[in-house]
Amino acid sequence: MFSYYLQLGLRSLRRNPILTALMVLGIALGIGASMTTLTVFYLMGSDPIPWKSSKLHYVQLDNWSPDEGAGSDDRPPDQVTYRDAVALMTAAKADRQAAMYKISLPVQPENPDVKPFIALGRATYADFFGLFEPPFAYGQPWGRDQDAQHARVIVLSHDTNETLFGGVDSVGKTVRMDGVDYTVVGVLAKWELRVKYYDLTNGAFNNPEEFFMPFTTAIETKRRSTGNNSCWRSPGAGWEAYLDSDCVWIQMWVELDSPARVEEYMAYLNSYVEEQKKLGRFPRPLNNRLPDVKQWMADQEVVSRDVEVQVGLAFAFLVVCLINTIGLLLAKFTRRAGEIGLRRALGASRRQVFMQFLIESGVVGLSGGLIGLVLTGLGLVAVRSLYRQYANVTHLDWAMVMTTIALAILAAILAGLYPTWRACRVQPAAQLKM
Amino acid sequence: MEIRPILSALMRSKVSMILIGLQVALTLAIVCNALFIIGQRLDLMKRPSGMNEADTFTISSIGFGQSFDVQSTINADLNLLRSLPGVVAAAPTNAFPLSNSGWSSGLSLAPGQRTSTANTAFYFVDASGVSAYGAELVAGRDFKPEEISFRTPNDEVMPRVAIMTRALARQMFPDDSDPVGKSFYFGGEEGEPATVIGIVDKLQAPWVSASMVENTLLLPSILTGGSSSTYLIRTEPGRRDEVMKDVEEKLATANRGRIVRGLRSMEERRSQVYAEDRAMTIILGSVIVALLGITALGIVGMASFWVAQRTRQIGTRRALGATRGDILRYFQTENFIITTVGLIAGGVLAYAFSLWLMDRYQSPRLPWHYVPIGFVCLWALGQLAVLGPALRASRVPPAVATRSV
Amino acid sequence: MRAGEFVAVTGPSGSGKTTFLNIAGLLEEFTGGEYWLDGVDVRGLDDNARSKLRNEKIGFIFQSFNLIPDLNLFDNVDVPLRYRGFPAAERKRRIEEALSRVGLASRIKHYPSELSGGQQQRVAIARALAGSPRLLMADEPTGNLDSLMARGVMELLEEINRQGTTIVMVTHDPELAARAQRNVHVMDGQVTDLGDEVSLRRQKAATQPDHAAAV
Questions:
Q1: Subunit contact C54:B312, Cβ cutoff 8 A
Q2: Tens digits of per-residue pLDDT, A92-104?
Q3: What ipTM was predicted for this assembly?
Q4: Domain boundary pick from B229, B256, B283
């Protein structure tokens, strides 16, 4: 019976092509708009590291001014001071921990064909690689001992290794940056993140860094952060004073494998801050936080307000398209009251008429969904050209393709429900003139 | 026109009326709010930065190696830049409008004051700074060459003279018509205050979405963070692109121990910094167009259906003496009534949407005039959409009435 | 055709009865001949003028009633009066008068679907009468009714005719036709006058099938 209804549906759609085109176009446009925005919304907001996102916690300590809070709603600063980062790293109370900051260094390639260039890097600890699990193509991360030794070692990104060494295994070779030679200990494979969740303060949609080096090495060579730096009071003169100041410029992540460990760590942070209060620091009330990845992304509004508004708007648009489709289906089905009466007279049950027309709506939905899918693809291309930084969150994956088609069919069937119900209430006799 | 009979006929087919009405209502609500957002973004985007954007560009240099001397490089670069044909002014700077990156801090009126009076961006420049930005000095004087010194971010003591924007001066000294000569302190510092020596009409801070975007303080120092330096270059009108190419090449060859990068015109920066706002206006604009299109098509579809369904009725009316104009007006009036009902609902919905946006995103209230303007537009859209089907209806021959079923 | 007559037009299906009706009722234009309606030459009149004439001088009664289902009886009878441009009080008076004349004054707020076929046709007659037409065109007025209802409708028409309104009734039922004063038979577009010795003398172009008699 299904294939018979399908045939009937297709034939009926061919009968008034303009009305059919209007319905299909309506659904396709609605689906295209809502799925384009939904894809961006979903990819921006989705968990970037689902297998352990609840174990990764961002450290926030409120060392801010007694007179005003760092953020709105009494939020603590979104980075920590050098002093506190080093203290937490030394205490090593978490299962893994890494302080980090953004740096940029001029690279002086040995190969004379490659011009010197500025590379963006991350100064961090060995645990960074265990925390965020970037894939290695060659070699391995540096060790904790090398953190302690301020070793001149470096991990290169896939692309940097491509530029400097033509993509071969460069472990053991050296890279000269700003006059200092660093030994390559590892090379990453392609590492693409939709959201650079480990450093949301310096551009959530930036690509991962071009190189990674020990935090201690960067500090020893007096590399200032090229990311955000905030001070609530003057740090004083000189590098040492800066390191000792209440300026925040470091991101700190810890891995805590169970809720109990989170509690323990929180207790440790609180006791640490209480200690510091005795030294005259942390003038504000105790306000330490340990958001996990998803919470931190929500706090930092990774999904921008514009994107949220766009999603809302696109779905309102879809509703309008559906109302439109309901109207047109109603028109189409009402015109066929005679046919329905005849079918009923010839023995079709109300249920059978219902199925026939519901399948016809489904066919409209499927066609709308397929065209909507194409429109979604085009929409994403458009979004990509409008927002260059969204390149990583404007791709369709299988889940979204299936969602699109399912949404379209569901939408059309929902839209078809009322007209179909009306259609099958036609009395067999009413339409037949004896 | 015969409104009551049309109304009572409509009440007999409520569903269709509700469908079109709902569509019109949602369309009005969305279009009003979307247009309002677009308007806000356009207002943001057209704010002047206070700079001569058309003729100005920036370029940076980063040296490498221990032997690199940033101070002598800057002096040499400035001499080179100022000697190039087409260059009107060149200045070292740490930040500029439309770049979203820079240094900001609080200023206060009393020594050791705990909360600052105003927040402002700091632009560290030399004596050509005001000229290179293309800002207009409206009171006081410019910096003198002897006031300029080199400094690093780790230096504690700030310069003792400064030029501020009118907006910042108004916030710092609201009661003084002439802020030149007034003193202020950086943050909570104590000791000798700094003095305002000049006022520029307008020069935006780097952060376009900050509330303090009009607050800028110019300070007479060349700030060197490590081995890098940035230059702001204003050219003779129309020569920017040619000078840009020249500058990049000359700086690169003048000193091989550094990397020259970040060559960008202010116009390019403006388009980048407002890319999201522009994208939002384009996306919202497309939604509006698509929405109006769908609604119009919906009206065309439903009206065509009604005409087809009522062909016999139309014929009867014609037989009973209705002219073509009567039939045309009938459908136009009907559309007007449905649209109006939808618009009234939509007006309420538009304000509800606006309240939701205010509550969730702290956006401003929808100004009242958007809704009446939306009414007029959608009335026009409805009449336009119904015209085709209504004309078709008016051409139904009266003889249809005698045709047997 | 003279004022005050009751003429029945008969003929088999497809003989041109409806065409005759459409032309006589000014619903269609005609290609030859001439037609004077109540002293007006209708040939060459434009659509608006003919609409006006229909509205003022002709009342229609259709086989399938053609009441507007979305309107109640009052509004249905009101339709031609609206186009006539009468003031509200005049329209109300005429509607009430016409509906009481057909015996439906008590059903004024009802919708057509709530009435029997005979009652619907009486509403249609009320609608036709409300504008005080000179000529009533009835197209198989009893075709969709059973014989009892049909008789009631016929009696109503005869009474209307007695009160001075000219009636042209198209029917295929010879029994009904017999009740008219004069019978016109249409066959293959040709007209034969059966019931009256005054034949269609003033008909000018009998060779054309699409011609109508003049009043």
A1: no
A2: 999 999 999 999 9
A3: 0.84
A4: B256
